[in-house]
Specification:
Number of strands: 10
Distance between the termini: 48 Å
Order of helices and strands: HHHHHHEEEEEEEEHEEHHHH
Oligomer: single chain
Helix content: 40-55%
Number of helices: 11
Largest sheet: 4 strands, mixed
Radius of gyration: 21 Å
Shape: globular
Structural class: alpha+beta
Bound molecules: flavin-adenine dinucleotide
Length: 375
């Protein structure tokens, strides 16, 4: 029933706007409020804060239906499935009361500032500083590649609160920063290869003072919390990757049936059939693994290794699949008027964010007992 509701909403309110958002290079706040009113921004959030009281499977349905409509620019998953769980699980009662209800209604959008110009994969190396000054933290630093960087209202900022901590990651904390705080400065919206409607931006913190009560999850606990929460982020990417693959594949199957060469549909060539048969098989294999992973995650199993496996494998598949499908479109595949061209460009980032695919393999290898430094 929930999927049917999301489908109806996405058909009516989202799909018709995707091209316009891509052209403008940003989505609009109105759609967030509409999604909030429809209960799509917090289906897994507690009912007492206005959420749906469900679990991650509801989030996964929203992600699948948005990916199906190529609404990648919205990135509601960053807000709903990545950021809000930090507040739900580690926020104080006051933080939850202040921040969750407007976020679930789509009135305030929440993003996360981890990455810096000098550090991405090596998260323990963040240089943004938060210095205690009485009842405030004073933040200074530069962040980059921040999703929702222009539209966001509240950001979870990863900052170093103890530069002397050993190991260094024990000196990292999470601090909630409202975007209208003096010293929170939005930088450029970055020009990108894909995801044109996503407002990925630079963010600067310049003597930005926030109350000490904005500390999220306790001083020095930031890295530990990130390591826990990044699992769900990786599963989100895998869910969206498989759903995006399905859409690209379905559209390509339609195309090859219509396009003719040498007196027959290109679907009749054995190469076309074999390529699409292989890809369709891989999508089903990936879907089965991701579905099983989602259920294990909701059950509370330790899915660190499986989430990393799903993230690298499905995004790798998405990159191969969009490349093969583009090839089957011939020259039209290179034209932006055919969605496969943007599918191909959008796929490129999937193996990079939420932990690069190389980092996923480092984590898997560690779980396989292959890292002698962690034996
Ligand atoms: C569109 C977009 C949206 C994003 N949104 C956000 C956001 O909302 N918030 C946020 O904080 N960040 C965001 N990011 C940042 C993203 O998470 C980082 O780009 C990513 O973690 C990689 O970091 P990096 O770019 O610094 O690459 P680097 O860490 O410099 O990596 C460069 C290359 O080196 C490889 N490498 C690094 N370390 C190892 C290793 N140990 N072993 C093997 N290979 C290694 C990497 O795999 C990669 O191939 C976003 C990025 C993009 C492109």
């Amino acid at each position: 029933m929930f999927r049917a509701q999301v489908r109806r909403f996405a058909d009516r309110e989202i799909e018709p706007k995707v091209t316009e958002w891509n052209r403008r290079g940003i989505t609009d706040r109105e759609i967030w409020k509409r999604m909030g009113a429809e209960g799509l921004l917090g289906p897994a959030m507690p009912e007492e804060y206005g959420g749906g009281g469900g679990d991650f499977l509801y989030d996964a349905i929203v992600m699948e239906e948005l990916s199906r409509r190529r609404a990648h620019g919205l990135m509601t998953a960053v807000h709903t499935s990545i950021c809000l769980p930090y507040i739900r699980d580690f926020g104080t009662p006051e933080q939850k009361k202040r921040y969750l209800p407007p976020a679930i209604r789509g009135e305030t959008l929440v993003g996360i500032c981890m990455t810096e110009p000098g550090t991405g994969s090596d998260l323990a190396n963040v240089q943004t500083r938060a210095v205690r000054d009485g009842d405030h933290w004073i933040l200074n630093g530069a962040k980059t590649f921040i999703s929702l960087g222009q539209l966001g209202d509240l950001f979870i900022v990863v900052a170093r609160t103890d530069p002397a901590a050993k190991p260094a990651h024990r000196g990292i904390s999470l601090i909630l920063v409202e975007a209208d705080t003096p010293g929170f400065v939005r930088g450029r919206k970055l020009e990108k290869l894909g995801l044109p409607a996503q407002d990925t931006s630079e963010i600067f913190l310049q003597d930005c003072r926030v109350p000490v009560t904005n500390l999220l999850g306790g001083e020095g606990n930031g890295f530990k919390i990130l390591m826990e929460k990044l699992q769900q982020e990786r599963i989100c990417i895998a869910v969206s990757a498989i759903a995006s693959c399905r859409r690209a594949l379905d559209d390509t199957i339609d195309y090859v049936k219509q396009r003719r060469a040498f007196g027959q549909p290109i679907a009749a060539f054995q190469n076309t059939q074999f390529k699409l048969a292989e890809l369709a098989t891989q999508v089903e294999v990936g879907q089965a693994f991701v579905d099983q992973l989602c259920v294990a995650h909701v059950r509370g199993d330790d899915v660190v290794m499986e989430a990393s496996m799903a993230k690298w494998w499905t995004t790798d598949l998405q990159k191969r699949l969009t490349s093969e499908c583009l090839q089957l479109h011939g020259g039209y595949g290179f034209m932006m008027e055919y969605p496969i061209a943007l599918d191909y460009a959008d796929a490129a980032v999937q193996s990079i964010y939420a932990g690069t695919n190389e980092i996923m393999k480092v984590l898997i290898a560690r779980r396989l007992g292959l890292d002698p430094t962690r034996a």
